[in-house]
Amino acid sequence: MCGIIGYVGQQAAGPILLEGLQRLQYRGYDSSGIAVLDHDGALAVLKRAGQGALADAFPSAESIAAGRVGIGHTRWATHGGVTDRNAHPHSSTAGDVVVVHNGIVENYRALRDQLIEDGAEFVSETDTEVIPQLIAHHLRQGSDFPTALRATMATIEGGNSVVALHASDPQRLYAARKGNAGGIVIGFGEGEMFLASDMPALIPHTNRVRYLANGETARLSSAAVEIWDSDGNAAPTEPESIPLDPVAVAKGPYKHFMLKEIWEQPRALSDTIRGRARVDPGQVVLEDVPLSDDDLRRLRRVLIIGMGTSMHAGMLGRAYIERLGGLPADFDNSSEFRYREPLLGPETLVVSISQSGETIDTLGAMHHVKEAWNAPQITVCNVPGAATTRITDGSAIYLRCGPEIGVASTKTFTASMAALYLLACRIGVARGHLQPADLDDALGTLLAVPSLVDRMLQQSDRYEEIASQLPEASNLLYLGRGLHYPIAMEGALKCKEISYIHAEGYPAGEMKHGPIALIDRHTPTIAIALRDALYGKMCSNIQQVKARDGVVVAIGTEGDEELAAQVDHFIPVPATGELVAPFATAVPAQLLAYYLATLRGADVDQPRNLAKTVTVE
User: Fold this and answer.
1) Would you say the CATH fold of 458-599 matches that of 261-447?
2) What span, in angstroms and rounded, lies between the C-alpha atoms of 436 and 432?
3) Which portions of the chain are predicted below pLDDT 70?
4) Which of 11, 152, 472, 560 could form a disulfide with 556 if both were Cys (CB 3.0 to 4.6 A apart)?
5) Which of 370, 537, 546, 612 is catalytic?
6) Is 368 exposed, middle or buried (0-12, 13-18, 19+ CB in 10 A)?
7) CB neighbour class for 514 (10 Å; exposed up to 12, middle 13-18, buried from 19)
8) pLDDT per residue as tens digits for the range 383-418
9) pLDDT value, residue 324
10) Catalytic residue among 2, 381, 401, 495
11) DSSP string covering 545-570, please?
12) SS3 495
């Protein structure tokens, strides 16, 4: 996540902004910056590439210390390299509109071309720079700032959060949010107001907060906050008081950590992708993976190991490495792998997945690899310095998701999928399997995934309604084919973990080889049937279930009215690239399990008999 901080009040803004950025740096960053306005509208900007560079430069920046209104930002690069010029904040051509931004502007190329035709001059390589240019365009057309910001948010595509300053309005801050790729929290002080992308930046100053909702725009002065919805209607501004204990701060406005972490997935995916998937030109940067192009060209095979949810991510990773990397790949259950004698060697890359980095069976399997074959290893992990990273001598793809408190993994599942997708692209480039145009397409598709997941989250009411009609079921069957078979497995696992309903995930082609005997009106089937190469076969499976009086919940492509008419419940998925469609279908699989669990009164965050990390056999 890009960190965002904003301040308007009577104190010097610079030190407050710098402190806030330091509190947000736990997710890492590659550049940072601050912009401050004084009461006369004079603007001072300080931004630097590199971790710690901003703090080093700050003491000598006297103009930064004078202002009482300002914004700050920490960045992971996506569009454009890690340079001072590409660091935030970014300004309009005239320099009077200044913004910091969290998210990805998916249609930035078309907007940039249009704005250049209108006379805008761009100085960076980022997607962010179209935002201040668009705001300035609408201001020139006669809009006031809130209207211009709202029109800009409606124009840009993807999940985005923006905080802005305007030199002609030097005593106010502006903010807007679209989607869930990054949040905005407004903090209410005494004679001062704050903005941040996450609650920890506000803890020293206030516990009275208002979370900006999807589609809302806000204007802050030192004394007041105004908020409008996406249609420009006034919205409530009353803050809530959050107890300043670690649990309340971490949970935010959500009932359960698991629900919070499901809704955090657009942001978590952005965290995993940022700085690694770079476009214009396409490049994959895996900063903690030391394998060179020559090392990757020597590989003949990839083996992915993990347990539970991590293994399901590995099943998808196999497909990514074969399709994007051009290498034979396989997956294995860590607990089984460590007790057999697989044939490995220096030309096999072993990729382990463990969100904690402490899973005992995966650690045992990794030791087995190191001692018996000394094959190269990479680990996918959410915890820097964890045991898996020590076995690989630091060769890791860190998920950068932040803590996952709920026992049932959610955001680390989709983040692991993204990490494996990036690894596959890195292998594909090194081995010449992905040409530059192919890489651009693959990375562009991945960069749109946070927005895709956000669109699926917006249907949460639909998932809750469907779940309300299933809680009496004692068994559930999840069916998928190809890339969606692992999602069927993961959906069934989530259902077992937190709702205590017996559920099984199957490749749909296996249904007639036994599971079909279980089907009746008391055993609902969740079938993933997108319009892909296996769509016809999935529809045939669904018809077989319906012929046996089975209840079917179909997850299908948006606009598939024929499928919707055949099933009892239909969940639409936006048409998207085949390789990234599992990111979308994972969301209803997770939320159906969550709502079933809450309807049954289960302890969602601490399900019985389960631990977050399995450290004993």
Assistant:
1) yes
2) 9
3) 1, 26-28, 60-63, 65, 180-182, 243-250, 611-617
4) 560
5) 612
6) buried
7) exposed
8) 888 889 989 988 999 998 877 888 889 999 999 999
9) 97
10) 2
11) HHTTT--EEEEEETT-HHHHHHSSEE
12) helix
Domain 458-599 has CATH 3.40.50.10490: yes
Topology, domain 261-447: Rossmann fold (3.40.50)
Distances (CA, A) of 422 to 393, 403, 412: 20, 22, 15
Superfamily of the domain at 3-253: Aminohydrolase, N-terminal nucleophile (Ntn) domain (3.60.20.10)
- Integer CA distances (angstroms), 89 to 191, 320, 327, in order: 25, 35, 41
User: What does the block give as tokens for 94?
Assistant: 């005239």
In 125-274, alpha helices (H): 130-140, 145-155, 246-251, 257-263, 265-273
User: Catalytic site residue 539?
Assistant: no
Query: Would you call 612 a catalytic residue per the annotation?
Result: yes
Instruction: Give the predicted TM-score (pTM) of the model.
Output: 0.76
Ramachandran region of residue 297, left (φ > 0), alpha (ψ -120 to 50) or beta? alpha
| Residues facing residue 53 across a β-bridge | none
Print the SS3 string covering 111-133.
HHHHHHHCCCCCCCCCCCCHHHH
Q: What is the DSSP string of 404-470?
A: --SSS--HHHHHHHHHHHHHHHHHHHHTT-S-HHHHHHHHHHHHTHHHHHHHHHTTHHHHHHHHHTS
Where along the chain do its domains lie? 3-253, 261-447, 458-599
Exposed, middle or buried by CB within 10 Å (0-12, 13-18, 19+), for 38?
A: middle
Decide if 202 contacts 138 (C-beta within 8 A). no
> Per DSSP, what are the bridge partners of residue 186?
195, 210
- Distance, in Å, from the CA atom of 266 to the CA atom of 270, rounded to the nearest integer, reads 6
Residue identified by tokens 């908020």 is: 227
Predicted pLDDT at 556: 97
**Taking Cα atoms as reference points, which of 358, 352, 321 lies closest to residue 338?**
352
- Residue 576: count of CB within 10 angstroms of its CB: 19
Q: Mind spelling out the 3-state secondary structure of 520-545?
A: CCCCCEEEEECCCCCHHHHHHHHHHH
Peptide bond connecting 281 to the previous residue in cis, omega within 30 degrees of 0: yes
Residue type, 499: S
Per the structure block, which two tokens stand in for 386? 């964890």
Angle between helix 411-430 and helix 309-320 axes, rounded to 10 deg: 30
